[in-house]
Design goal:
This protein is an alpha+beta fold. Helices cover 41% and strands 20% of the residues. The strands form 3 sheets. It has an 8-stranded mixed sheet with strand order 1-5-6-11-10-9-7-8, sandwiched between helices. A 5-stranded mixed sheet has the order 13-12-14-15-16, with helices on both faces. It has a 3-stranded antiparallel sheet with strand order 2-4-3. Bound molecules: adenosine-5'-triphosphate (ATP) and magnesium ion.
Length: 441
């Protein structure tokens, strides 16, 4: 049967069989962020279009080509294409900059960009992002990079290269823009249409162009490192020595300029070669001018965002471990309507204790129910028929060992279940440790 309405191009469903991968990344993200003292922030899915025009920047691909905007009752709104703008707006609007600085927040959220869908590039994707406001010190840059690095490590990822660069401040960048314009001016016949437009307003964007001709020309373009002012130069060399002290390896890559306008000084990307062309799994940098640009007092700030889809793709490719989905602790097989009534009662008691309990809702035969219980991976099965109800006793079957033990269906049921469940749990730990021991031998 053909479904008459399909999901939009560039979006994805996450079915229950895949959800543990998302839970793993989200859980690790929250855990790492909290160990670095970051607190979660939530903000709307859509904002005034103006927010992104002012922050992400009018000459960026995101604003020029990728935003989903609507005019609703004469106001213009846009689905967030990234998380930084909304976070900073929320931090400012809620007066958080009047509290003790630095402010450190993180988010796990969806983003929307009208892109050409391909592996690792969706129209709705998800980011784990973190932002820090208030510190101008290179120690803050090192801290953010170290947090991203710990996060990727905690996911079990390997072979991810950290690339760092400094793109300077507005004062040194003015000189650099001049040099870039002079360089590209002699190549105007070869540049793509978009880059011709960028030449006047934002020549640094040309370095980010994905067209083969433009990127070939960009190879010999002047480097920002030759134009950094003393302050930006010092900031970058202090960051490098801090990363060295932290034993975080990196490559200085003068071609990293980042796609959004608000960056200043440090920019960085964590790149893998394991998932094809879209290999940047985490990217970020400093944006000292953004708060002021949005109408606040001058406040240095920085952050990063990691693409969750790309992280999961890389984890799959590298055979990283994922959290296991919770399995059913007890499946009750009731035979007949009075047994079903008893099953409902017992399930309620155990669920109150936190156990995952299921029972038949399909009126299936004993054999079919056992098959279903096996399929769900239930740890225990309890068959309830007329005999069991009458005797107030039943057999609790351990599905792993096949062992059956009697259990009373009276007031002591929960206590007896606890005992049998714990015994099986400890037995499992025991076999695990024996296995581990034999593996290390
Ligand atoms: P790219 O160079 O891939 O276009 P970007 O510079 O546009 O990335 P950022 O705005 O810095 O990306 O977003 C941070 C991270 O979010 C990226 O490094 C990537 O992991 C992820 N990301 C960005 N766009 C997409 C997308 N369309 N689909 C999936 N993940 C994405
Ligand atoms: Mg992009």
């Amino acid at each position: 049967m053909a479904l008459s309405v399909q999901r939009p191009l560039g979006t994805a469903d996450v079915t229950p069989s895949e959800i543990h991968k998302w839970h793993t990344v989200e859980h690790v993200a929250q855990d790492i962020a909290e160990t670095f003292g970051f607190k979660e922030i939530r903000f709307p899915t859509f904002e005034s279009t103006d927010l992104f025009m002012r922050s992400v920047g009018e000459t960026t691909d995101v604003v020029q080509k990728e935003m989903y905007s609507v005019i609703a009752k004469e106001s213009k709104f846009t689905l967030r294409p990234e998380g930084t703008a909304g976070t900073i707006r929320a931090v400012m609007q809620n007066g958080m900059l009047n509290d003790a600085l630095p402010q450190k927040v993180f988010y796990i959220t969806s983003c929307f960009r009208h892109e050409k869908p391909q592996a690792g590039r969706l129209r709705e994707f998800h980011q784990f992002g973190a932002e820090m406001l208030g510190s101008a010190s290179p120690a803050a840059d090192a801290e953010m990079i170290s947090m991203a690095n710990s996060f990727l490590k905690a996911l079990g990822l390997k072979n991810i290269e950290l690339n760092i660069n400094s793109i300077g401040c507005p004062s040194c960048r003015a000189q650099y823009h001049k040099a870039l314009k002079a360089y590209f001016a002699s190549k105007t016949s070869e540049l793509c249409g978009t880059c011709l437009g960028r030449l006047e307003k934002n020549p640094m964007r040309i370095l980010d162009c994905k067209s083969p001709v433009c990127s070939e020309i960009a190879k010999d373009a002047p480097l920002i490192s030759d134009y950094l002012c003393e302050e930006c130069h010092d900031h970058f060399s202090q960051l490098r020595s801090m990363l060295d002290d932290m034993n975080i390896s990196y490559k200085v890559n003068p071609k990293i300029v980042r796609g959004l306008d608000y960056y200043t000084k440090t920019v960085f990307e964590f790149i893998t070669t394991d998932i094809g062309a879209q290999g940047t799994v985490c990217a970020g940098g400093r944006y000292d001018g953004l708060v002021e640009q949005l109408g606040g007092a001058s406040t240095p700030a920085l952050g990063f965002a990691a693409g969750i889809e790309r992280l999961i793709m890389t984890m799959e490719k590298q055979n990283c471990m994922f959290m296991e989905l919770r399995k059913c602790d007890l499946y009750i097989v009731p035979m007949g309507s009075s047994a079903l009534g008893k099953a409902v009662g017992l399930a309620g008691l155990l669920r109150d204790e936190g156990y995952m309990v299921e029972y038949d809702l399909m009126n299936r035969s004993l054999k079919a129910q056992m098959k279903y219980a096996n399929k769900t991976g239930a740890s225990f099965v309890l068959v309830l028929g007329d005999n069991e109800l009458e005797a107030q006793k039943a057999k609790l079957k351990n599905m792993q060992s096949g062992e059956e033990n009697e259990i009373s269906l009276d007031d002591s049921f929960v206590e007896q279940f606890n005992t049998q469940f714990m015994a099986c749990y400890f037995e499992r730990i025991d076999t695990d440790s024996i296995l581990e021991e034999s593996l290390t031998k």
